[in-house]
Amino acid sequence: MTDAHAPATELSDAEISEQKAVRLGKRERLIAEAQDAGGGAYPVQVPVTTTIPAVREQWGHLAADEQSGENVGIAGRVVHLRNTGKLCFAVLQSGDGSRIQVMVSLAAVGEESLARWKELVDLGDHLFVSGEVISSRRGELSVMADGWEIAAKALLPLPNLHNELSEETRVRSRYLDLIAREQARKNVLDRAKAVASLRSTFAERGFTEVETPMLQVIHGGASARPFVTHSNAFDTELFLRIAPELYLKRAVVGGIDRVFEINRNFRNEGADSTHSPEFAMLEAYQAYGDYNSIADLTQTLIQNAALAVSGSHTVTWADGTEYDLGGRWDRIRMYDSLSDAIGEEVTPETPIERLRELAADAGIEIEHPLAGKYVEELWEHHVKADLVRPTFVMDFPVDTSPLVRAHRAREGVVEKWDLYTRGFELATGYSELVDPVVQRERFVEQARLAAAGDNEAMRLDEEFLRALEFGMPPTGGMGMGIDRLLMALTGLGIRETILFPLVK
Known about the structure:
504 residues, disordered N terminus, 5-stranded mixed barrel, cytoplasm, alpha+beta, 8-stranded mixed sheet, 18 strands
């Protein structure tokens, strides 16, 4: 904006404290004045008639020094401020980042109002202004004020909007990030578009959205360490949900053949660039589908989300890199791709002793009773980093996938895939295990691992097994992290895609 400026340097803690004291004094004055005239520092309402984006859309064509003849009442946050003599300037910003200049002149508002403006208005205040829409002599779309009012007094000064906020500030004070940075506001809108697209794609295919419990007596549906809490009302230990899977499958047993949930999950594990202890998850189940049909659905869900966010299957990340999500995605087998990568055939029959040797040769530090765990670790070490395009990695070891149906044609593996994009796991899909007898056997094995000290092993869930005994149809299921979907669409880390991430 040519008619306004911002502070050139960041304020120290002492300066911030001093400014807060000054602003508190202005707050007191506004409240005192309000006893007679209304308004105050935090009025319940201001008479807005339109929005800043609407004004820009309708009158953005005005030539320099042209008047619209239309009076408006607008409100926004003061992000630039310049007080000079008989004409003062401010720039108001709306929630979407749109801005407009405000001009306050002695001739239009009078001496008393102009003096109050100079004394009471600060950067960061929410301000209501009424007046005619014009274009300044420099061609800046503006409102020539004939009246103004504080809509909300800011007690703390904004950071310098010309300087980039530190990552720490962006994460811990997301509200400042949203004020200062267009990318932060775009992230919120992109996430909303992506989630709306997911729901639309499901609706087109006859899926029903449901809600399942976040507080559970028995945690299950994934291999993860849960958060533990206590219910005073029931005097019992409860777990925050690590996955909605076992409840969604109950819904399929009950006849909701196509079901999905977008939910919050909680896993008491590490946090890094792709993991958060609290995260958003999509899970979906389709009766009479399998892991092949659910892979097709997952590809469609993601490609439609890309269209919603970017208008194309080729998305542009925040750093300018383009990533192609179009076409039909590759499908590779875990054991075959691992064998190709290390130049030695690895199969479900490969002895665990040999797998331990291969892990040691690769410098992988792992000690686990399950051979499948070594296979997965070896695959991640040797293959994952080379996957550039979105790729479905098919057919996992049976001993690491207790809720998955055994492969219809290959011994020792299950019909499971993981979808990798940008080198990280984005989604997983199964041909679901629906045989209650085999499922009980798998749960018993998990219980044995838990007794041996595996904090991520699943617990035996008798109520879920009872539901299966009433008959669950052949089903394909999938799960996808919403935060990770946004990572794939935007190229950002997980703390950028979550509006308010958990931090220490």
